[in-house]
Amino acid sequence: MGEAIDRVNYISFSSDSEEETLCIGRKFGAALTRGAAALLVGGLGAGKTVLVRGVGDALGAARVRSPSFTLINEYRCEKFTVVHADLYRLDDASELALEEYLDDNAVLLVEWPERWKNPPADAVKINFETTESEPNKRLIRFSAFGKKSLDILDSLKGTLP
Ligand SMILES: Nc1ncnc2c1ncn2[C@@H]1O[C@H](COP(=O)(O)OP(=O)(O)OP(=O)(O)O)[C@@H](O)[C@H]1O
Ligand SMILES: [Mg+2]
Q1: Any idea which ligand is nearest the CA of 50?
Q2: Most distant CA pair in the chain: distance in Å?
Q3: Is the Cβ atom of 60 under 6 angstroms away from ligand 1?
């Protein structure tokens, strides 16, 4: 327990452009490990899909497109499959059986995870905050819950100057 308390459990980034958010996503993608889950929380247009596109870049996926209509997109990459879900249009996400994607061959990134009744206990939560006065500014805060996620944040922290 002591170890977890001593370790970093959140990191915040400020982004001033889509390109900067892509870059943060690439760093996060490089830090991801098999079986990881990320829950992306933020309003419409906050930059969740842009960040996942950066993750895809880092892992060698084809250009990530929004799963708003498809609900789930899968990208088979060399290290593991990137599974990208968007639950916005669902009242109850249980029909998607997202937990079945949580295995060692995949990483799972979920937009609108508020619709997921049983999200995994070990997950990286990514919060996006916007401000009305600065339309291109985003505050992006990563928090870790669980050992695997703490390891990912440690490694993300290691990529920072
Ligand atoms: N700093 C920034 N980071 C990310 N996107 C930005 C930023 N500034 C402006 N944008 C713009 O905001 C939009 C973000 O769109 P994106 O599809 O990533 O949002 P989203 O959070 O996935 O929304 P939704 O919930 O509708 O899926 C894009 O049009 C992008 O160009
Ligand atoms: Mg989106």
Answers
A1: 1
A2: 43
A3: no
Q: Where exactly are the structural domains of the chain?
A: 13-157
pTM, entire model: 0.95
| Weakest mean pLDDT among 3-12, 26-35, 110-119, 146-155 | 3-12
Nearest atom in ligand 1 to the alpha carbon of residue 46 is 21
Secondary element (H or E) of residue 147: helix 147-158
Strands 37-41 and 106-111 turn out to be parallel
Distance separating alpha carbons of residues 16 and 160, to the nearest angstrom: 17
Instruction: Say if ligand 1 is within 6 A of residue 21 CB.
Output: yes
> Which ligand is closest to the CA of 17, given by its number?
1
Of the options 3.20.20.70, 3.40.50.300, 3.40.50.20, 3.20.20.370, the CATH number for the domain spanning 13-157: 3.40.50.300
Q: How far is CA 87 from CA 55, 84, 151, in A?
A: 19, 10, 27
